[in-house]
Design goal:
Blueprint (H helix, E strand, L loop, with lengths): L6 E2 L11 H5 L14 H27 L3 H10 L3 E4 L6 E4 L2 H18 L10 H23 L16 E5 L3 E2 L1 E4 L3 E5 H6 L2 H17 L12 H18 L5 H13 L13 H9 L1 H27 L1
Parallel strand pairs: 4-7
Antiparallel strand pairs: 1-5, 2-3, 6-7
Helix pairs in contact: 5-7, 5-8, 7-8, 8-11, 9-10
Amino acid sequence: MSWYRRAKLGITSFHNLTNSTAQLYGKTIIPTCKPPTTSFQRYYNVDSAIAVGSWIVVVASGIMVASGIGTLYAMFCYRGLRIVNVPFTNRKRLVMPTMMHKRIGDDALEGCMIKYKGKLLDEKDPHSMRAKLILKYIIQGLERQVKCNPNSNASGYYYDGFNWNILVVDNFIMHAHCIPGGTIFICVGTLQALTDGEVAACIAHEVGHIVARHTVEFQHPNLNRCKREFEADYIGLLLMASAGYNPRIVVEFWKNMILSYPDFSKGDHEHPSYEERANSLAQAHVMEQALTIYKESWSEYFVNLVFKHKA
């Protein structure tokens, strides 16, 4: 799942590790987060109602064709399918069982390792170190959200069992994608072209896809695939804010992308346009929620810093 469509870039100077991420290294930020607002959830639940209602029709049709309850039992018991909510948006959908999810992730990882053989940077390369550091902060942001909302559906099934890792591909295009299980691939061109905050937005978006388990979700014709990109954008926005990155960066990034790459900005059947993505994240109720999390994360950081200094 691409965070954005590929765009060829020239080589720019590399941001060294004395930037904003290094200043946060080793610090623990545990904000008192507020539960997500419901307005964004309602946006997705419009499709949830359609999706669940349609699945009921599909299941009912299957029962008629297969002569009864056997099909329903096979789907939900034997095959392990279940209806679950997406964390943070609460959209209902039908997902594959955990075992199948792991198998898909293992196969995808093996395929990517073959595809990128000889093209992956060493883990000690400065680009790799920078990407891993930013991923570390994003995962800490996810952990904070789970701690702040222990009864939310962001915990448990959606948080456990991931092996988080990021690998840098020696390619000078701007591109990133993820696979089930927690591995993210990001190209050198992305790291060279973007600031730490923009890279954090990119990585947080991919983490959003993984946490939402989009790859093991049954693809329903009534749910526009672009909605999953909007969903990952929204989850990523909250996670990067929880990690201490200013969420306003993302909106400005998309606006700059529109000016810099107008030919790539129109979107396709799987990806919304850059303008749609900027407008979606700039909505008052969305940005206010992210800014609240962002401010609380920094407040807690300074409080912890003062107490640590006094100790």
